[in-house]
Amino acid sequence: MAFMDSIIQKCTTLSHIKQVQAHLLTTGQFNLRISPSRTRLLEHCALSPSPAYLPYAAHIHRHIPHPSTNDFNALLRGLARGPHPTHALTFLSTILHPDALTFSFSLIASARALALSETSQIHSHLLRRGCHADILLGTTLIDAYAKCGDLDSAQRVFDEIPLRDVAAWNALIAGLAQGSKSSEALALFNRMRAEGEKINEISVLGALAACSQLGALRAGEGVHACVRKMDLDINVQVCNAVIDMYAKCGFADKGFRVFSTMTCGKSVVTWNTMIMAFAMHGDGCRALELFEEMGKTQVEMDSVTYLAVLCACNHAGLVEEGVRLFDEMVGRGVNRNVKHYGSVVDLLGRAGRLGEAYRIINSMPIVPDVVLWQSLLGACKTYGNVEMAEMASRKLVEMGSNSCGDFVLLSNVYAARERWEDVGRVREAMKSRDVRKVPGFSYIEVEGVIHKFVNGDQSHPDWREIYAKLDEIRFRIKAFGYVAETSLVLHDIGEEDKENALCHHSEKLAVAFGLISTSEGTPIRVNKNLRICGDCHVVIKLISKIYDQEIIVRDRARFHRFKDGSCSCRDYW
DNA sequence: CTAGGGTTAG
Predict the structure, then answer these.
(1) Most exposed residue of A103, A292, A415, A445, measured as fewest CB within 10 angstroms of its CB?
(2) Quick one: average pLDDT of A16-35?
(3) Family, per the entry (predicted)?
């Protein structure tokens, strides 16, 4: 048997596999009810990374007269990790005597297919069979629920596991971090440490991802200290996550220190993370330098590398360089995806080269996505191109986008041309459609505690003081000639929605709170989930001058460092 | 013999 196994291991072509299959058939093993070699062959074929093997595994399986549960499991496992995980779920219903492994592979499939109802169906099967105490299944179940977006169920499964091990904790920490419940993820990581549970590299990866999202520097430094103490930094992925954490907390240089002193080898991801970090900070030169340096190493550049460097050009306004890099990609064997096109369209659009941007969209071999049309629309707004704006909006409506921002942009273009009837038409369209507004919120860390604000928030214990500070700010910036940039559209629509009033945007609330509670000389750091709004950008610049206070705002796409009345983005965003 | 948790992205 061991001999047969080693032969199967060495099968590298389909023809090898067919020879083994023929051998099993001629010796009669293939048609037995149980044949370990047959199962091995099936598994080898189903798990092979080459795409042609999985269909052949299905073919072999179809020809087994009475497949054993192990035969079913072997193919199921392959289908679960293959390109169409739903096929595994259909296949599951044909399995007569499923065992624990059957359900384990099925959960991997339902997680990858983001199929919540299938996940919970498998869960109830498990409960009926009394498998709920199985730690491996429990962990897989937590992961599946989390990936399907049902974090409450993931938490419940976690709570019901009698004896949790590292992986169970890690599954929930990672699930919370990826499900935008970063504070909860961080809290769970801390609880894990408090309860004396042994942590490993995967635990810190989850915790670092949470810190990155929150921009929680203090907590991130804590995790980094723990990484060093436990020598977890021999792992590249951990180093990458540490670099990313510092960058997303506003300290690209701290990230760079880790980057340049790490002792384990750098991977593509390491380089990409660092280039992206400089890009986010608007430091186009250092991003390009690093890109150059990367070219001298053995590490192969990939599509993310190019995306990072295009993003750097975009944020630094390096139009020519960006176009050049975009052009050279194909020759260097790096495939362009929709994000590269989006990036270069954005780059050209911001530079006012709308015609070129439009030509690129038309010549794309792939279907443009919503974001791409949105950036073209944004450029049309900036440069007052009504015709192209109408065309972009039509595309957006066709694509089913009902984001508030798209309508506002179009209506702004009309308003700038004083086409009030068209403005009214857009407004009607907004009312008749179910226009989504993504709620904006901002975080600020004060003494290691994260405070969260939404637009018009009055739930903070110090809200009266914060609003008083905002009044004072408004008074003082007016002396500098500030006029609120309430565009006509926003004015019109804002009436029904007082919460969205410009002066109580979440980022202003967070900055005001920062002014009250941060000691002098310390920069105020705020994170926002959306792009910073134009009015807030103007106001914060003035605050940085009047209050002699450095303010760093991380928005959805990049960092803005406000100092002495100007911003590191040079108003180019 | 065969099972679980993981870093970069407009």
Answers:
(1) A292
(2) 91
(3) Belongs to the PPR family. PCMP-H subfamily.
